[in-house]
Amino acid sequence: MSRSTTEELQHATVEQLMAVIGAPDDESVAEAADAAVRALDERLRAEAAA
């Protein structure tokens, strides 16, 4: 993912998780959601450590 704000990462994560709900058997959708969650987790950990 490109450098985004925390809020943008939060919105992207919600959108990706909603996509999983709409296409629960689509592996590429699941992988995109996983990437969004990981990016948000990384950002939140970095902010907490700062």
Outline:
The chain has 50 residues and is an all-alpha fold.
Protein model, in words:
The protein contains two helices and no strands. With 50 residues, the chain is mainly alpha-helical. α1 (6-22) packs antiparallel against α2.
**Low-confidence runs of at least 5 consecutive residues:** none
> If you compute it from the alpha carbons, what radius of gyration comes out, rounded to the nearest whole angstrom?
11 Å
Helix share of residues? over 70%
Number of helices: 2
Mean pLDDT: 93
Strand content: under 5%
Number of strands: 0
Structural class: mainly alpha
Describe the global form. Answer: elongated
Tell me the span between the first and last alpha carbons.
21 Å
Largest sheet: none
Order of helices and strands: HH
